Amino acid sequence: MAARQISNPPGIWGHYGALIVLALITLTPIWVMVATGFKDDVLVQQKEPVWFFFFPTLENYDYIMTRGKFDRYLWNSTIVGVSATFLTLLSGGLCAYALARMEFRGRVLVANSTLLVRMVPPAVLAVPAFAMVINFSLNNDLAVLIFFYTALNLPFAIWLLFGFYKQIPVELEEAAIVDGATPLQVFFRVLMPLMKSGYAVAGIFTFRIAWNEFILALLLTGRTTRTLPVGAAGFITDTGVEWGRIMAMGTLIVIPPLLFTFFAARQIIAGMTAGAVKG
Amino acid sequence: MNGVQLNDITKSYGAVNVIPQLNLSFDEGEFVVIVGPSGCGKSTTLRMIAGLESVTGGSIYIAGKDVTWARPKERDIAMVFQSYALYPHMDVAGNMSFALRLAGTPKDEVKKRVKVAADMLELTEYLHRKPKDLSGGQRQRVAMGRAIVRDAYCFLFDEPLSNLDAKLRSSMRTELAILHRNPNRTMIYVTHDQTEAMTMADRIVIMEKGKVKQVGTPREVYNSPENLFVAGFIGSPSMNFLDAEFQGEQPRVVGEGFDLPLPPRLHDAARNAVSRSVVVGLRPEHFAAKAAQGGAAPPLSAPVSLDVKVAEYIGSSQFLAADIGKRQVAAAIEVGPDSAPLESGEYLFDTNRIYLFDKSTGNALV
User: What is the DSSP string of A202-239?
Assistant: First the structure.
């Protein structure tokens, strides 16, 4: 194919200018976080902020790794994030499938109202959730957090996956049924592989929320079950806010979801190109 | 009892009665085509045989076994869908072997059967391609292969050729006919295309509004349609229908712009008819040009005058859109490839090919 000269349309500079401004707005706080994590206390508290040129120190990271309980928090967060994501995708997927395909009373109402539950901010749930958990003496148990995050994420996951299932032609399932597949075989061997991109999107959102959530985690965890965000908040002490350590921890917290998103996003692209069904 | 039997099948969706009562029987090894306009219940019927749709009443037997409430996998059937419904994430071999793998067939056996089917359908070099990398015709063949590999008792086809272009369709039609001769399985084929039905079927079932209008061989339904619907549906271009009256001692049918003597086989029908008025059916291909225009007169023929509006040249014949009286009719007239465009004037009609239908019931008079 011959290379073609594409002339820049007149608005191109304004277009890129706007994108650069937006990128700066997004990236600045992240840079502040990363940079602060490498500053010592004196530098952090300085009246004139230092943006770029300072002598970086690993002191904050050293403190977090050796004296805090970072490994403990990381383990808790991983357990909670992965389990909640897995549970949400599994049950949400089955639920969305039922809503998309099966005929039962109230189907349309349920399908259309799942998102309503999502409108409730977690903070509103905090008090009743806390009361419930205390009543059943379930505080300080990671399972509680997993179930709450699953419940919080299900509406969105169901709504999203519902849309994806709707796009899969019914004939594919019928072909599988005629081929002798049981309903679960249809689900796991024919539909799931086609739903990769849907699950990837739902997975990114669920994991991110479960990983970052703070209020419920603060209320429902104890010394041994704290997650990373709660752990980071531990540096707000009676004697002052230890910004350097908080920011260093923040930087570390960001890394796993970032990796997860890159991995899952690849599935989205793969899913988009594998979708050819019709002739 | 063998083959496939549908006894008193009914089907309703809520208050809508799609199939009032259906009795059909397909012999073992027979290729039956169910044909009808869209919404006539033919696909529903096929899906009930497959078990993808439940019946409201009645019973279904396959190979002598009552399968009315059996799951599709217990019915020993294979099905080809209109959209092919290939699994996009599996390659051709995976698609064809899915049913066998689900059934736990040994790996060697699976490989062997996929290879046989792939050879038959000329798919061997594509076995490791995904459906999206195949052409329409190849996908169609994979869908067919998926059914063949099963070696099921009964094959069901739901308009499998309607997504293909005309040329591919006719070559697939031939392949299907050959395929049927090979494994000699019962095949039930649904289509809205009467040409497909006529070319492939051992027997044709013509349906309208959930009811069977006629069952017969292609020759029977073409030569002796039992009612107006079948007469109009089978044959291309479709039969012309004109209002007429019986007249005279030697019975004739007389209508606006035509007066045709009836052949001896219809004399009794004319004499016994309850009503004097009747619908006359004239197939376009039974018109002929007079010798002067390059035509050959059939042995029993009568003149008809046609007021030609359009003459379409299609090679060895010409299609006419013409008026008899005030009614527009179609005529296909064989005049050879070198003929000049046909003009208005006297033409002949093969009176031995006249069809008569009762005006109120639409049934054929014989």
Answer: HHHHHHHHHHH--HHHHHH--TTT--HHHHHHTTEETT
Q: Are strands B57-62 and B154-158 parallel, antiparallel or unpaired?
A: unpaired
What is the interface pTM, i.e. ipTM, of the complex? 0.81
The token duo for B153 is: 């008792």
Phi-psi region for residue B187, left (φ > 0), alpha (ψ -120 to 50) or beta? beta
Q: Report the length, in residues, of chain B.
A: 366
Using CA coordinates, name the residue in chain A closest to B158.
Answer: A171
Of B71, B87, B150, Cβ closest to residue A172: B87
Query: Are A180 and B86 inside 8 Å of each other by CB?
Result: no
Closest partner CB to B89 (pick from A180, A274, A278): A274
Neighbours of A7 (CB within 10 A): 7
Report the residue of chain A nearest B47, measured CA to CA: A174
**Local structure of A140: helix, strand or coil:** coil
Adjacency order of strands within the sheet including B4-13: B16-26, B4-13, B57-62, B65-66
What residues in chain A have per-residue pLDDT under 70?
A: 1-8, 269-279
Three-state DSSP at B253 gives: strand
Tell if the pTM clears 0.80, that is, is over it: no
d(CA A51, CA A154): 41
At the fourth CATH level, the homologous superfamily of domain A66-273 is MetI-like (1.10.3720.10)
Q: Average pLDDT of each block of 10 consecutive residues along chain B (366 residues)?
A: 87 90 90 92 93 92 91 90 89 93 92 89 90 88 88 88 80 76 80 89 93 94 94 92 88 90 87 87 91 68 90 90 92 87 89 91 89
CB neighbours (10 Å) of residue A146?
Answer: 21
Residue labelled with tokens 């230092």 = A50
Distance separating alpha carbons of residues A264 and B347, to the nearest angstrom: 75
Any idea how long chain A is? 279
CATH classification number, B240-358, choose in 2.40.50.140, 3.55.40.20, 2.60.40.3760, 3.30.470.20: 2.40.50.140
